[in-house]
Design goal:
By secondary structure, the protein is of the alpha/beta class. Among the domains are: 242-391, no CATH class; 475-735, Rossmann fold. The protein is built from 24 helices and 12 strands. It has an 8-stranded mixed β-sheet with strand order 5-12-11-6-10-7-9-8, sandwiched between helices. It has a 4-stranded antiparallel β-sheet with strand order 2-3-1-4. Strand 2 and strand 3 form a beta hairpin. The two termini are 60 Å apart.
């Protein structure tokens, strides 16, 4: 899917790119066509501009140009301060430093110094304004070098050389002064910065010392290693103690099962057995108890002896209890007097259990202490990264402050050496000399500017004239305006002499088909004839009206030449001059116009008497007498009858009618015939006239066969409209008899 999307995207991009390329090519071709049509206008503007430039150049006084060269370089004989001095800039890496120096060379202080050196003044004796020198000063960088070429134009050769040398010398001195002043300013600045930098070093060092003191740090790396080792050692000790505690607990459990009491009682019993006070009272108590038993065997319970012994026993019991409480504490209540005297085995077990309990408590205390120590060291270890980060930050500040201080000290030493030097970063490698010959550069520039301006204005004027010209300039414009198909294209051609002059056969030279049957003009009319035949393949055209939008488009010549072309292929053709307002067919054919169409319509003359035969196959019916209302004659039943009669006698009848502009003759007559041809000539008909003609045709709705483009300049015509390789030209009519020409042409099979 991704591959399909990518392919579609690539295809779309290719199509868009192709369309943009085609549009650019079409626009360029269109502009070139406009220039080809309007070249006289463009040439006139170009010639005028160039002529004015030539006049201006001829009025220029001879100018002498003197030049000198300045080399910019870095002084490498001493250590230069790394910083803001002008002389440390590299001039061979990029053009901007040279451009900067070029601006300085043209500055007012430099030029004013040069003017003062040369004591240049105006007519009033005042120092010459710097702008006068600057306007004639030329400074350019020599390509690929660190050299600026300084030039000056003047009508005085010596003055030109002196100005160049004075400007360069003023710049050199100014450069040295600026360098020294810059060095001095840098020294003062560094001297002021040194105490501040030293203070920053001291503050950074004190902050680092205080940090180490507050955190008891000698070496964070060693401290980190020591703490890790201590934590590891404590972990081992804690593990050992935990192991000992587990072993002691196991032994206590074993002894408890043998002795029958737990470790706490064992501790109490062991303490009571070891107490002399408790054991002494216990022995007295046991003796009193034995005496009481013996006395009871001898005396009664109420006897004084038994009563005294009972009191003694109770007293000893109370004393024993007191002594046990003193030794055992709050746990004395859980002690039976019988446990105060146990056997040696039990006493040994109790002692062992008591000792184990004491050891357990000791191990427990050691474990607590070790774990507290381990937690303390772990807390200390967790603080080490933050302490290390803080120490590194303070150390970086101290290092940066020390480096800045050292750099300032070093720069101060270097700048003191530089301050004492008197060299700059530029030197004159070639002084200007007075030129021997005047320079033509200004004249050439003026001529070049005039030519460029003339060319630009000529092209712009040609395009503007073409835009303002409302005429339809190309075949594409004509087709776009009318919307009818193009059925014929007649190239533009020229003839010797006036079109009113007739040749030896009495025919106008504009009838090329008759005069030059093998010319490309004849081929054009033959192509028109063939196209008309293809348009009426179902029914052959017998009558057609030929008209145009406006006068001057050549409709009468097209009518005559088309009729001649049809006659050449053996058809019987009648040319009817239906333009009774401005008849012209009798002029083209060298005929008389005593009687014609108007006379035949009103019945003043018979058709057979009015028609005139040019050849056996070509006849002409002239317009006749000009009537007061030609449209009324054409739009009559008599005219319709004549058309039917013409169609019976001839294979094709061609009506030459008035233009459509303001007249309805062609539209009315077009409804009576088989079709209408609209002759149009680019650059003659305008848009408004074309719209009016199209409106008339749409209202009358004749059978419009198409457009015949007449007088087309093939050099300005796209290749798609014509197969002709060059413009058709005709200069010399062939010395042949018309009838012979037509008979020869008629033998060809078309």
């Amino acid at each position: 899917m991704e591959a399909l999307v990518e392919a579609m995207s690539s295809s779309t991009h290719w199509c868009i790119s192709g369309m943009e390329s085609n549009l650019e090519e079409i626009n360029l071709k269109k502009n070139l066509d406009i220039l080809a049509r309007r070249w006289p206008v463009a040439a006139a503007v170009f010639g005028s501009s160039l002529g004015l430039a030539a006049v201006g150049a001829s009025m220029q006084k001879p100018a002498f140009t003197a030049t000198g060269d300045l080399l910019f370089e870095v002084d490498r004989t001493s250590t230069i301060l790394q910083g803001d001095l002008d002389q440390v800039q590299s001039f061979n890496e990029q053009a901007s430093p040279l451009n900067t120096q070029s601006v300085i060379l043209q500055s007012n202080p430099i030029i004013e110094e040069a003017i003062a050196r040369l004591e240049l003044s105006d007519e009033d004796g005042n120092p010459l304004p710097p702008i006068v020198i600057r306007n004639n000063l030329e400074i350019e960088a020599v390509m690929g070098t660190d050299v600026l070429r300084v030039g000056y134009n003047s009508d005085n050769a010596d003055l030109a050389a002196n100005v160049v040398n004075a400007v360069m010398q003023a710049y050199i001195e100014n450069n040295i002064t600026e360098n020294r002043s810059g060095t001095r300013a840098a020294r003062e600045f560094i001297s002021g910065q040194l105490p501040l930098s030293e203070q920053e070093v001291n503050q950074a060092a004190e902050a680092l010392r205080r940090f180490r003191t507050e955190n008891n740090i000698v070496s964070l790396k060693e401290e980190s290693t020591r703490v890790v080792n201590l934590i590891s050692k404590l972990d081992g000790q804690i593990a050992d103690i935990q192991s000992q505690m587990m072993d002691s607990a196991a032994r206590v459990e074993e002894l408890r099962s043998k002795a029958g009491f737990d470790s706490q009682k064992a501790v109490l019993i062991s303490n009571l057995n070891k107490s002399e006070g408790v054991q002494e009272v216990l022995r007295q108590y046991q003796a009193a108890q034995q005496q009481l038993s013996s006395a009871r065997n001898t005396y009664t319970e109420a006897s004084p002896q038994v009563s005294a012994l009972k009191r003694e026993k109770a007293s000893l019991q109370a004393l024993l209890t007191s002594r046990v409480i003193e030794v055992a504490g709050p746990n004395a209540g859980s002690i039976d007097f019988g446990m105060l005297q146990i056997g040696d085995l039990q006493q040994e077990l109790a002692g062992s259990m008591a000792q184990l309990e004491v050891n357990r408590l000791g191990l427990q205390e050691q474990l607590r202490s070790l774990m507290e120590s381990r937690e303390a060291y772990r807390s200390q270890a967790s603080r080490i990264p933050s302490l290390e980060t803080r120490q590194q930050e303070l150390q970086r500040k101290l290092t940066a402050a020390q480096e800045t201080y050292e750099n300032l000290l070093s720069s101060l030493q270097e700048i003191r050496v530089t301050e004492n030097q008197t060299i700059g970063n530029a030197r004159i490698i070639q002084a200007a000399t007075a030129p021997e010959e005047a320079s033509l550069k200004r004249r050439n520039l003026l001529l070049a500017a005039g030519a460029f301006l003339g060319l630009s204005m000529g092209v712009a004027t040609a395009l503007l004239v073409d835009i303002l010209d409302r005429s339809l300039k190309t075949i594409s414009d004509v087709k776009g305006k009318f919307g009818y198909p193009l059925v014929g294209l007649i190239p533009k051609y020229a003839t010797l002499g006036s079109s009113a002059q007739l040749n030896a056969d009495g025919v106008s030279p504009r009838i090329i088909v008759a005069n030059a049957p093998r010319s490309i003009i004849n081929e054009s009319y033959q192509m028109l004839r063939a196209n008309l035949k293809f348009l009426s393949s179902d029914k052959e055209l017998q009558s057609l009206v030929i008209t145009s939008s406006v006068p001057g488009e050549g409709k009468s010549e097209v009518s005559a030449n088309l009729a001649a072309a049809m006659a050449q292929v053996g058809r019987r053709v009648l040319v009817v001059d239906a333009d009774m307002r401005n008849p012209s067919q009798h002029h083209l054919w060298g005929l008389t116009n005593r009687a014609g169409l108007s006379n035949v319509i009103v019945g003043q003359e018979k058709f057979k008497n009015a028609v005139q035969n040019v050849t056996p196959r070509l006849s002409v019916l002239t317009a006749g007498v000009v009537p007061p209302n030609p449209l009324a004659l054409l739009d009559s039943k008599r005219m319709a009858q004549l058309i039917e009669r013409f169609a019976e006698q001839y294979d094709c009848v061609i009506f030459d009618t008035p233009p459509l502009a303001g007249m309805a003759d062609a539209a009315v007559l077009g409804k009576m015939v088989d079709g209408l041809l609209l002759v149009t000539q680019p650059c003659v008909v305008d848009g408004n006239s074309a719209n009016s003609a199209k409106t008339i045709l749409e209202r009358s709705a004749p059978n419009i066969l198409g457009i015949v483009a007449n007088g087309v300049n093939l050099k300005h015509t796209p290749e798609g409209y014509s197969y002709y390789g060059k413009e058709g030209e005709y200069h010399d009519p062939l010395p042949k008899k018309l009838e012979r020409a037509f008979s020869l042409s008629g033998q060809k099979k078309h």
